[in-house]
Design brief:
alpha/beta; Rossmann fold; GMP Synthetase, Chain A, domain 3; 2 domains; 7-stranded mixed beta sheet; 5-stranded parallel beta sheet; 18 helices; binds 5'-O-[(S)-butoxy(hydroxy)phosphoryl]adenosine
Length: 630
């Protein structure tokens, strides 16, 4: 394959070419895909509006590049290996041909419900192969999917249904997660009390009792009954929307990040093959959930476009025991393993005992994603999981970038613990200071921006283009601003330092402080709140909430519990604050702005580095908050 990089010098050469002649570069990569009609123009862009279009007037269907293009050679190769929550339940394997047939049947099923090109379909499902089938069927008929993580609450789900005006929901009766059984359909029903959709398709997973609304709800298995196992894919334009994925920002409600068809397809396959150095026959396992962008780009689309075998795991790392991951690697002879630092740290806490007895010798490449990986976790991963012989790819990217932008290429780029190392071909980075001045040369630290488009970049935020411009393209002129702080060291290697905005990263999940505050404020006793992140041993960052309540709060601990439950019910359990401190007031400037800098210091316990507090409206409040610290 001509687009595969094999050596460091090859990478450096390709990188230079990709910067000097981006259009030629990407046209060459895109030419290895199947287009019903080739594009007229590779790229048209400006970052002012922003308006970015790749492979203009190209016509294609992404799923034809997974199936029709490869079935003849790859038909019998496993596409998806599914490992259930319970180790005693048998795993399932779907070959490319079987997956294709499932996708075709479900494509017909969706169309029989009047769903077609441009319609939005919410996928709110457990980690079962049918979740991927639903995504691919949407892509095949031209419907736009929006996968919502099945851990989100009914309120969060309702917000997303409303925002994208979804026509249908694909869901399941329930979800097995460790020793819990989540009532997925009941949550959907609750969300649909606040909004409405025409169709709900329910996959039977747990067999638990659920209610079905006649005319609206139908069973997956009934609907696909008798549907043909072949289907003619819809012709899509390169820039037709492929999916919307909601993600949190520093202000307001989560926004719908929009990705389009052609560029996303080209970039996810290219980056998958190169970063992980996937070779045909490898078993690849990404432990993310399909509800996050990693689950889209590197669990479904990238690997399947590359003809890889992708493993889907329904459960959690610690059930029924802390060796579950290692057991699965051994059982399915996993070659490439991609997980999050938070999972590594959580498992590290159990020591090496749970690894013993599991043969991890199939592993060739390890990956990390979602948050900065600390050196200790990096070394533990390298030594105990990779046995010192597997390169670790620390991949930096975002929901908005669609694919990995900064990462070593496995076994090619020399690694350094905690460094994402170097940009992929086509990715033009720049570091700026707070005023937007570009910091050139090595050994600099500042805010990470990108100065040139790449094929899988965000196109808009659904229904609100101005928000997209404001959030990403207005801070620094003619640059995409990532929201991350970064250091470029003396070797020119990049190390991501974390968010510089009001976004916190809890176990690799992105949370807006404002979003959590709004949820806390829903509690009737709460007057005002301020949320900050603080360093957390396992989660990376924990959520610390400073809350002002009304005077009549007799039982503090039950109130704190109630506030946590309020947040869980409004956003989802992942947003529950780790610490809640009831405070008499918040440090505010005279203009009423909360001084988060001070609260961050208090939360992280650096009490002597409080800085200047003289501009505060009520400087005494700081001492009171410090006294009551959790
Ligand atoms: C934010 C994006 C990318 C898929 C999962 C998260 C942080 C992501 C790394 C990394 C340090 C990282 C950044 C980024 N992040 N990967 N390898 N090293 N930080 O996607 O929810 O859109 O979050 O995650 O802060 O901005 P997301």
């Amino acid at each position: 394959m001509s687009d595969r990089l094999h050596t460091l010098s090859g990478y450096l050469y390709e990188y230079q070419k990709s910067i000097a002649q981006p259009e030629e570069f990407w046209a060459r990569i895109a030419d290895s895909f199947y287009w019903r009609k080739r594009w007229d123009k590779v790229l048209q862009w400006n970052f002012e509006e922003p308006d970015v279009r790749w492979f203009l007037n190209g016509k294609l269907n992404l799923t034809e590049n997974i199936f029709e293009k490869n079935l003849y050679t790859l038909g019998e190769r496993p596409a998806i290996i599914w490992e259930p929550n319970e180790p005693t339940e048998p795993s399932r394997t779907l070959t490319y041909r079987q997956l294709f047939e499932e996708v075709c049947r479900f494509s017909h099923a969706l169309q029989s419900k009047g769903i077609g090109k441009g319609d939005r379909v919410i996928i709110y499902m457990p980690m079962v192969p049918e979740a991927a089938v639903a995504m691919l069927a949407c892509a095949r008929i031209g419907a736009i999917h929006s996968v919502v993580f099945a851990g989100f609450s009914s309120t969060s789900l309702a917000d997303r249904i409303l925002d994208c005006k979804a026509k249908a929901i694909v869901t399941a009766d329930g979800n097995y997660r460790g020793n819990k059984q989540v009532p997925v359909k009941a949550i959907v029903d609750e969300a649909l009390e606040k909004t409405s959709v025409e169709t709900v398709i329910v996959y039977r997973r747990t067999g638990q009792e659920i209610s079905m609304v006649s005319g609206r709800d139908c069973w997956w298995h009934d609907l696909i009954q008798g549907k043909p196992s072949a289907h003619k894919a819809e012709e899509m334009d390169s820039e037709d929307m492929l999916f919307i994925l909601y993600t949190s920002g520093s202000t307001g409600k989560p926004k719908g990040v929009v990705h389009t068809t052609g560029g996303y397809m080209v970039y996810t396959k290219y980056s998958f093959e190169n970063v992980f150095q996937y070779t045909p026959g490898d078993v690849y396992w990404c432990t993310a959930d399909i509800g996050w962008v990693t689950g889209h780009s590197y669990m479904v689309y990238g690997p399947l476009l590359a003809g890889a075998t992708t493993l889907l795991f329904e459960g959690i790392p610690t059930y029924p025991h802390a060796g579950r991951f290692w057991e699965i690697i051994d059982k399915h002879k996993v070659n490439i393993f991609y997980t999050a630092p938070t999972a590594i740290r959580a498992l590290q806490a159990f020591g090496t005992g749970p690894i013993e007895g599991h043969d991890l010798s199939s592993l060739k490449v390890l990956g990390s994603v979602g948050e900065p990986i600390n050196e200790e976790a990096w070394h533990w991963y390298h030594t105990h999981i990779g046995k010192g012989k597997c390169p670790i790819v620390d991949t930096w990217w975002q929901t908005e970038t669609g694919g990995i932008l900064i990462s070593p290429l496995a076994g090619i780029t020399p690694t350094k613990p905690a460094y994402a190392t170097l940009p992929l071909p086509g990715i033009q980075l720049c570091i700026v200071d707070a005023k937007g001045k570009e910091l050139t040369g090595n050994s600099v630290e500042g805010n990470l921006c990108i100065t040139f488009p790449w094929p899988s970049m965000i196109r808009t935020t659904y229904g609100d283009h101005e928000r997209c411009r404001q959030t990403y393209f207005s801070t620094y002129k003619n640059k995409y601003f990532t929201g991350d702080g970064v250091k470029r060291d003396h070797d020119g290697y990049y190390r991501i330092l974390g968010r510089v905005d009001d976004v916190i990263n809890v176990s690799g999940h992105r949370m807006g402080t404002a979003e959590v505050e709004n949820a806390i404020n829903e509690h009737p006793k709460v007057i005002e709140s301020a949320v900050v992140g603080y360093p957390h041993e396992i989660k990376g960052q924990g959520i610390y909430a400073f809350v002002i309540c009304d005077q009549s709060t007799p039982n503090e601990s039950s109130l704190v519990q109630e506030i946590k439950e309020t947040v869980a019910s409004i956003i989802g359990p992942i947003a529950k604050p780790d610490k809640i401190q009831l405070v008499p007031g918040l440090p505010k400037t005279r203009s009423g702005k909360i001084m988060r800098r001070i609260l961050r210091k208090i939360a992280e316990g650096s009490l002597d580095a409080m800085g200047d507090t003289s501009t505060l409206l009520d400087p005494e409040v700081v001492g009171k908050i410090i006294d009551g610290r959790k």
